[in-house]
Amino acid sequence: MTDSTADLYDRYGEALGSCDTQLRQFGAVTAFGGPAVTVRCFEDNALVKSVVSEPGEGRVLVVDGGGSVHTALMGDLIAGTAAENGWAGVVINGAVRDVAALRTLPLGIKALGSNPRKSGKTGAGERDVPVSFGTCVFTPGAQVRCDDDGVVVLPLG
User: Fold this and answer.
1) What is the rounded CA–CA span in Å between residue 90 and residue 25?
2) What are the CA-CA distances from residue 40 to residues 11, 123, 147 (Å)?
3) In contact, 64 and 39? CB cutoff 8 Å
4) Strand partners, 64
5) Model's pTM, two decimal places?
6) SS3 of 5, please?
């Protein structure tokens, strides 16, 4: 990834989707990007685990967890699977856990915060649907870029 999110904003201006949600860095990779794969789930990470078990091919998983930090949607095992399978990173509108271990993984991880509480495992949720948080819409396939300044979605076309 060559351009910073700030440089991308300077180039595209208001045509660029810029996420207002203040997400924290958790992975060892602090600048990452790629085509978006989306999941919408609430306090249940079975769908997240299923998706990162597939080849990532440099994509970014964007998870709309409804902003809940009551349970963690990703921990070290699921994040490790994502890293092993070639995902560039994960952006979570929700919580993670195993923070010390996440810092060591070769994966970009942005999330609202952390909570040691496990999530449900029913598989409830939706995949490959537009998700929206922080005044930004993440559409499956859209180019997402993340760094210390934030998360942006490049305009289509």
Assistant:
1) 10
2) 30, 11, 22
3) yes
4) 40, 93
5) 0.97
6) helix
